[in-house]
Amino acid sequence: MQPLPPDVPHADPKPLYASRTKIHPRRISGSFRKLKDVMLWGFLALYHLSPWLPWDRGANKPDQAILFDISGKRIYLFNLEIWPHDIYMLTGIMIIAAVGLFMSAALIGRAWCGFACFQTIWTDLFMKVEAFIEGDRNARIRLDHAKRGAKHAIWLMISAFFALSFLWYFGDAANQTRELFSGEIGGWSLVTFLTLMAMTYLMAGFAREQVCFYMCPYGRFQGVMFDEHSKVVTYESWRGESRGKPGKNRDFENRGHCVDCSLCVQVCPTGIDIRDGQQMECIGCALCIDACNDVMEKFGLPKNLISYDSAHNIALRSGAKKVGTLSKFWRPRTFIYGFILLATLGVTSYALHTRDLLEVNIMKDRAPFYVTLSSGQIQNAYTLSILNKSNQTRHYSIDVNATNQPSFQLIGQDDNHIRLESGKVTSLRLLVRGEMPKDAYGTLPLEITLRDPRHHPIKVEETVFNGPK
Ligand code: SF4
Ligand code: SF4
Prior knowledge:
The strands form four sheets. Strands 6, 7, 8, 10 and 12 form a five-stranded antiparallel beta sheet that branches. The radius of gyration is 33 Å and the shape is elongated. It has helices at 31-49, 87-108, 111-116, 118-134, 137-142, 149-168, 173-182, 187-207, 209-215, 217-221, 237-240, 263-266, 287-298, 311-318, 332-354; strands at residues 66-69, 74-77, 80-82, 231-235, 306-310, 358-364, 371-372, 378-388, 394-401, 407-410, 417-420, 425-434, 443-451, 457-466. By secondary structure, the chain is α+β, with helices and mostly antiparallel strands.
């Protein structure tokens, strides 16, 4: 058999609009199908069980390990408590997720889409229900227009379970479940529940691959992240062509290994023919590899006529590239992605571990800037906001320092002791009185210090003390 150039043939350009042809993928077994099943059940378990993971944060704190507490303006992730002030950390987490996705595309193509994307997982689950009730591909094609109440009922139950689990992330999981089943659910919870339930039912039950083709932006721009070393699902045309039915004597001399059985097309959840070359519609699920490997085995031919490999390695195998080593992991783009990933991870972790668990904001009164008392002393007023982000009740005392050695008073308090419960914020009015030295020209630097019970300074904030010039 003469090796053909490994150039990937490109599919004929498709019209801008084509009405949808319903796809009935054939069931297939194989190593990639097994991997998909492990990921499917693993991700479903992770999604539905995570909100039930308990986490002890002490009294008056939620005991869910993962909770997006919208009304309390806080996100709880295990030991981590993210306040609105720490929202930059979420930016870090989002950059890590995005660059991680870019890196995975550069290394293993659309594996995310084919194995881990929520749309793929729920569509796969819906297809399993469909196959269980209606049978495999041929039976489903026959039943195409028949209504199957049981199938739709199970789809709706799965969609409702998905929507309910989503709510669990935003409130006490047991409480949300009780409210739903007792009919007490209302407001935004009900709107979210019904919207998500309807979206899951429609997207996984009906829209399916159309979401990947027309709605998901990731699939559209993913091609630019690939290079010749990215591993993608490819039909090895140099080995498969010229294709044709095998004939009685199964002679594969002077012809390609593809027996034109179309199994690779029948198992494809997006209904494409990978033999037409790489296509935007291919989500990299690798089920066509399982299908083709089965066929190759039956004919005693080497496996991986459709392979998960890089264009570079295929070119080496085909003989189109005479010299060169196999694809490498580290290339300029993976190096850059890896560097950004590590740098963002480092900066976010550092910010997380060094973030202040005590927030103090000082607002100086501006109208008036100062008041001259009958004693001749100058008085300035300040508003102090103190936020205790730690997990324990804290005790603080206040100290005020300036060169004029002022006196101070917290309005409404006999002493300067402050007790602040975990997660609480307090607002205090502070009056500072003192002389204004003549050489100060109307402004003196002033320090307000918060001290712990052992009198150690834990926060020093700088402001000014104003008086007449
Ligand atoms: S062509 Fe193969 S890898 Fe691509 S979507 Fe179809 S079955 Fe999955
Ligand atoms: S499954 Fe393999 S042998 Fe059958 S048509 Fe597809 S590429 Fe050819």
